[in-house]
Amino acid sequence: MSLxxxxxxxxxxxxxxxxxxxxxxxxxxxxQKMLSACSGSIITSLFVTPLDVVRVRLQQQELLMPxxxxxxxxxxxxxxxxxxxxxxxxxxxxxxxxxxxxRSVKPLRGTGSALVSIAKxxxxxxxxxxxxxxxxxxxxxxxxxxxxxxxxxxxSPISAYTTLNPLLxxxxxxxxxxxxxxxxxxxxxxxxxxxNNQSMLSTLIKDLGSELKIKGPQVLFRGLxxxxxxxxxxxxxxxxxxxxxxxLFDKNLNVTGKPDSELFVHSFLAGSVSGSxxxxxxxxxxxxxxxxxxxxxxxxxxxxxxxxxxKFEGFGALYVGFVPRLLKIAPSCAIMISSYELGKRFFAKTxxxxx
Length: 355
Known about the structure:
mainly alpha
């Protein structure tokens, strides 16, 4: 056997390849796939937005309340320099850069306490800040992502490789979707990061417009590189894991004997497990993206930006906000993919009945 044949045999997993099962395999139109992709957006957005707000607040705390090893750095809503020191985190070994304001703010200690604290001090509605942008982003993002993934997967020249193909196609679909909504993602992150209702969406849009005139179009894509470092591997790992677990559950897990119910359960479980695995592997880039989008620091190389966080704050800082992110991602991935699969089956059955 040649080396290429051995490699192909190692990557292929023909035993777990999904088999055609009735109306699911019927062709449905791109518009029907788009509707299926958007069907779970409202439910997931309402459920996960508070966790998204908490994730952002936990990840930005070091910018607002730095440790003794770091000077306090500027954030976009506070353009006046806090000290005469550099905005870059430096190992000063003293507390001279930590302001009295930073000392007076009570830090958020965890997901549950953060939810209570934000609701108590800023109002319950703050937990759903950015929901309108999330819903506005959902349509173009999910349309490009889900339908783009399936188009790439089904037309790929390496479709026989049941692990490699979804990994690469999922990654490429996320590049397209992430780039399409990057300016909206920037606005959403900034809106969720501002404490005590200091700025609202109209003000943020105006400020971003001013930045656009000064710095050019690239300002709209601030943090995109780190976002893609987070989302591209996330998407690749997610789709490779999803296809694997979905096929595994289809083959070995008989829940109700009813096709629609089993499709929902298998998709829900596979989506949840796959989203959790991908979230664990990519959380450091999520921390970096949030920090970069709300800070006024000059953009650095990815390696330098991430290594500075680990160097001055410890490796654990790269996993700040992981719990709310996991609580957000696992159910949202499960709901979105199961809604998408059931939506496709519904349209496939309808097409079959009308034919």
